[in-house]
Design brief:
The complex is a heterodimer of chains A (408) and B (603). Helix content of chain A is 41%, strand content 19%. Chain A has 408 residues and is of the alpha/beta class. A nine-stranded mixed β-sheet of chain A has the order 9-10-8-7-6-5-4-1-11, with helices on both faces. Chain A has a three-stranded antiparallel β-sheet with strand order 14-16-15. In chain A, strands 2-3 form a two-stranded parallel ribbon. In chain A, strand 5 (112-122), helix 4 and strand 6 form a beta-alpha-beta unit. Chain A is globular and about 60 Å long. In chain B, strand 18 and strand 19 (340-347) form a beta hairpin. The relative contact order of chain B is 0.09. The chains are: A alpha/beta (408), B alpha+beta (603). The interface between A and B is large, with 53 and 34 residues.
Chain lengths: 408, 603
């Protein structure tokens, strides 16, 4: 299978960019065994299926997804993809064959560039060694394991469908498959979570020594069980003082362990930052395919329907993306909002001199406070103080530039 | 327009509680008399301000002239003079009632008499108007015409044997109403030969023509081109245009005693042609003006400050423009150490205040901070001077004061019986003195209290409505000043005295109010990167304190697989919120905090 891809790449050598070449694709695999209590993503629950029987609802979805791949390629000037990301949901509920079919479809439609990053999210307890091996053979070269916590009681609190033992089983399989480029996801700020538990989770993660780690601070989404049950900062949720500490603890532990805090919520060993996600943070265009997926193509941001039927209907009706390009102001604010997530920040040459001057004036008080660095080449938030107050800083930029938040 | 003999003119108004169907009835009358063609009819024709349509209340008056051929075959001119439906505008109501000889008393057949209606009926009776009771909405399932009629007879003391059963919505009873107006409302007295005296019952500012005066000719005749003299303002103008309202303006050559019309005369501001003023001829002036003219007296005051100090000049201009059309709006520059430059504004009442604020924000695009409403306190200093203090932060220190007096009102509440207990409790906690309680018909009660006005201008009305599930209604008028033991409560945020949060309270309530206020402020002021103490103090003595802990983080960490729209919305909201805040020292205080006193648990 790998051979096939190399051939394709050879037939389509990388070439210099046209207007805005799109070289990243996100594919949404919405299936999950159950919905975690904090999650409001567009997903489709297929039940526990401990016997690993495949869900009958998956093939029609993959057919639709394949159709969207073809439609999308047919109306653009396809460039070989440099990054592909299978996100979910739980992509590891797909069989390796199913995943391979999707990659084949992408390959036919767009081509895959030399050294393409093909990433997928996998969840403990949802895959076998055989599956993992199969994904790898199909071309997946980066795995992101949804661990969230190393305490069974916290996993239960979150409504996760796996145990700590299954995390270690998953890690053992990853090792056995000789996969180096893998990431672990952790969540801080969970209900009842203590400082000690967070430290233990970080230690456990460091001991596993993944190439990459994502540490997310829990966000309460209104429609979720968590959102309905809890209010931010109130018991049993840790208060802001504690969650701020958890953030600082992660930053201190992980950087001490040799991880680079390259993005507000992400840590990597040198060379292992997620290239696909960088596309978002650098505010470059990307395809997104599948229900609920949000794409950024031709200057237009578009979110697909969030339920399967609505998504199928949208596809059947021609998969139209409304022609509502963003304004310059949207683009400017998004470049800032996304770029300031990166520790290196945003390059100044992305702004006009007058925009740059306004940004500098707006951020000057924060620079004085030590939250922002205003370099000649780049503007960046400091770690951890600037990152911890990134919303405050961004809101001031929005107040400065955004007509929707202005009073006139 | 042909000249109509005085005997064939009927001038009437409609008295009704909000929602009892006055506007719909007026619309029906316009339709039935063919004054407004069916196709031009928009809902509630007379309520022409957007705000009025939205809230379903009448703020500005309107008038309409209708031609009606009665069953006796004669041609009559019916002038409907609309009245505003709110307590804040009772002076305007009284002037429009005086311009009439009769009134339709419209009562909802399922609701019964409300306090506001009662107050206006008394005003009408004082002006010797013929009152025709109309029960509206009789088609509704909940209608209880007998009970409500009994109530009207008992409460108002009106003979209801001839009451008309109507449904303005269904068009029931409209002919009967028109016939009753012709037969029951007396014609105006024929005083065409006397010198001109015309009563201004409304005026509004038209940006192209200047002020348009609505008036009723009481005596004499006014002609196109006449030079008029306004007896209260002392100003003289040449009439550019004279006409009637049908309800659109139609020019005429002259108007005689008994008729209603409008004048345009290049008048620059409504303050030059105030409601209640008398129009006479410059060449042949009347000896005496019509009685009853009164200057507008502001009862409620608040500070208005632009959030962005660059908008100060815009605010001044907006107030000037509003004042062109609103003679009751008073304002003067105010400087606050906390808020910077703004204006102290005086209003007839709370609704008036709300309307002005809303118009400033809506029509003039201003972002404003409004301080909590206050009343005028009368302070006697130890030197014997009497000062009128409308801004709590200007109250002289205790050692310089002999006494403080505050305005009191006579409050009348009409409520279904089951809410009497909770409403008495409300009045009591607002320092009300119980005066009387009257039961009328079955199940409804009037409560009469004397209450300090300051206690009413906060959230009293909201409380009244929520405690009675919307069933109670109220009416008040000011009865004078009384001495009380009042103190000034100061508020400090992060050690800075915030003068615009200062308030005058009764000593016995100061501790409780101070505590609730600091707690409320703690809720309303967002966390900052530093700890913020909030204190309430009387003089130098801190009576309550709280602190807002420092903000430790403000970050949204998750990136939703490239879906950035939510994060963006959140930041937009946060940015917008920031723009609605006023910086007090280093603390950003949201607009609501300045109204916090309205939202504290005062009970």
């Amino acid at each position: 299978m790998r051979q096939r891809r190399i051939k394709t790449v050879q037939s389509q050598p990388q070439e210099p960019a046209i207007a805005s070449p799109i070289s990243s694709a996100y594919l949404h695999i919405p299936f999950c065994r159950r919905r975690c209590f904090y999650c409001d993503f567009p997903i489709a629950v297929v039940g526990e299926r401990r016997d690993r029987t495949p869900s009958q609802s998956i093939p029609p979805y993959l057919a639709a997804l394949t159709q969207e791949i073809e439609i999308t390629a047919a109306r653009s000037t396809p460039q070989p993809l440099a990054t592909v990301f299978f996100g979910g949901g739980t992509p590891s509920l797909l069989t390796p064959e199913q995943l391979d079919q999707l990659l084949t479809a992408l390959d036919h439609a767009f081509g895959l560039a030399v050294g393409v990053e093909i990433a997928m999210e996998i969840d403990p307890g949802t895959f076998t060694f055989g599956q993992l091996h199969g994904y790898r053979s199909a071309g997946v070269n980066r795995f992101s394991l949804g661990v969230q916590a190393f305490q069974d009681e916290l996993l239960q609190t979150c409504g996760r469908s796996h145990s700590v033992a299954e995390i270690y089983d998953a890690v053992a399989m990853i090792r056995r498959a000789q996969i180096d480029n893998f990431s672990l996801d952790l969540i801080s700020g969970l209900p009842h979570q203590t400082r000690e538990q967070w430290q233990d989770s970080l230690e456990a993660a460091i001991a596993i020594a993944p190439a990459h780690l994502s540490c997310y601070d829990l966000v309460l989404e209104p429609v979720t069980p968590f959102g309905k049950r809890y209010s931010p900062g109130e018991t049993p949720l840790p208060d802001d003082d504690l969650t701020a500490d958890l953030y600082r603890i992660a930053q201190a532990h992980l950087t001490a362990a040799g991880y680079d805090h390259y993005e507000i919520s992400n840590y990597a060993r040198p060379g292992f930052a997620c290239r696909h996600n960088r596309t978002y943070w650098e505010n470059r265009p990307y395809y997104a395919l599948g229900m609920g997926a949000a794409s950024y193509t031709d200057g237009i941001r578009f979110s697909r329907p969030r339920t399967r039927q609505a998504y199928y209907d949208w596809l059947a009706a021609g998969a139209t993306i409304p022609d509502e390009p963003e304004t310059d102001c949207d683009r400017l604010l998004e470049t800032l909002m996304l770029g300031l997530r990166l520790r290196e920040g945003v390059r100044c040459d992305r702004f006009t001199p007058s925009e740059q001057a306004q940004i500098r004036t707006t951020l000057a008080p924060y620079a004085a406070q030590g939250w922002v660095t205003l370099g000649d080449d780049a503007i960046a938030l400091t770690d951890p103080d600037g990152f911890l107050f990134s919303n405050t800083i961004l809101a001031s930029l929005f107040a400065q530039f955004d007509p929707d938040s202005a009073h006139r | 327009m042909t000249h109509v003999p005085t005997s064939h003119i009927r001038n009437f108004s409609i008295i009704a509680h909000i929602d009892h169907g006055k506007s719909t009835l007026a619309d029906r009358l316009l339709q039935a008399t063919g004054t407004v063609e069916q196709r031009k009819m928009k809902e509630q024709f007379l309520d022409s301000m957007d705000l009025e349509r939205e809230r379903g209340i009448t703020i500005k008056l309107q008038a309409a002239r209708m031609n009606y051929t009665a069953k006796d075959g004669q041609e009559y001119v019916l002038n409907l003079i609309d009245t505003p439906g709110h307590v804040d505008f009772s002076y305007e109501v009284s002037r429009s009632l005086i311009a009439c000889e009769g009134a339709l008393l419209v009562v909802d057949a399922s609701q019964g008499v409300e306090a506001q209606t009662l107050a206006n009926v008394y005003l009408a009776l004082e002006s010797d108007l013929e009152i025709i009771p109309v029960l509206n909405k009789i088609d509704l399932p909940g209608a209880e015409p007998e009970r409500v009629l009994e109530e009207v007879e008992e409460v108002v003391g009106l003979d209801c044997s001839g009451a008309i059963m109507a449904s303005a919505k269904q068009g029931i009873g409209i002919d009967e109403i028109l016939e009753s107006i012709v037969h029951l409302v007396p014609p105006p007295s024929d005083t065409v030969d006397k010198p001109l005296r015309a009563l201004i019952f409304d005026s509004y500012y038209d940006p192209y023509r200047g002020v348009i005066i609505y008036f009723r000719v009481m005596d004499g005749t006014v002609k196109q081109g006449d030079r008029i003299h306004l007896m209260a303002s002392g100003k003289q103008y040449d009439i550019d245009e004279l006409g009637v309202l049908s309800p659109t303006q139609i020019p005429v050559e002259d108007l005689h005693a008994g008729e209603v019309g409008y004048i345009s005369a290049a008048i620059k501001a409504v303050a030059d042609a105030r409601v209640g003023d008398t129009i006479t001829l410059a060449s042949e002036p009347a000896a005496e003006p019509l009685p009853g003219y009164a200057e507008a007296k502001s009862m409620v005051f608040c500070g208005l400050f632009p959030i962005d100090s660059d908008q100060y000049e815009d605010l001044r201009e907006a107030l000037e423009r509003l004042r062109l059309n609103d003679a009751a709006l008073a304002y003067e520059p105010e400087t606050s150490s906390a808020m910077g430059f703004g204006f102290r504004c005086g209003f007839l009442g709370l609704l008036h205040m709300e309307i002005v604020q809303e118009r400033l924000e809506r029509e003039y695009n201003l972002d404003l901070i409004t301080t909590a409403p206050s009343v005028v306190y009368r302070v006697t200093t130890i030197k014997g001077e009497v000062l009128e203090i409308e801004n709590p932060s200007h109250l002289p220190p205790p050692q310089a004061r002999e006494k403080i007096e505050e305005p009191y009102i006579h409050l009348e509440v009409i409520t279904p019986e089951e809410y009497v207990g909770t409403l008495m409790d409300l009045c009591q906690t607002r320092r009300g003195e119980f005066k009387n309680m009257r039961y009328f018909t079955s199940k409804r009660t009037t409560l009469i209290y004397e209450v300090p006005l300051a206690e009413i201008v906060t959230d009293f009305f909201d409380q009244l409505k929520s405690r009675s599930r919307g069933y109670a209604s109220m009416e008040y008028h000011v009865i004078g000043y009384r001495t009380n033991h009042l103190v000034r409560l100061d508020v400090m945020v992060n050690g800075d005295l915030v003068d615009s949060l200062a308030m005058i309270v009764h000593r016995d309530k100061a501790y409780g109010v101070g505590r609730s206020l600091v707690e409320k402020l703690k809720e309303l002021i967002p966390r900052h990167q530093f700890k913020i103490p909030i204190q309430a103090a009387i003089g130098s003595k801190v009576i309550a304190s709280e602190h807002i802990p420092a903000l430790r983080k403000d970050v949204l960490a998750k990136c939703y697989g490239g879906d950035i729209s939510r994060k963006k919305k959140l930041l937009q909201k946060q940015a917008k919120g920031k723009k609605r805040m006023k910086s007090i020292g280093t603390v950003d205080v949201p607009q609501e905090a300045f109204m916090a006193v309205l939202r504290i648990d005062n009970n």
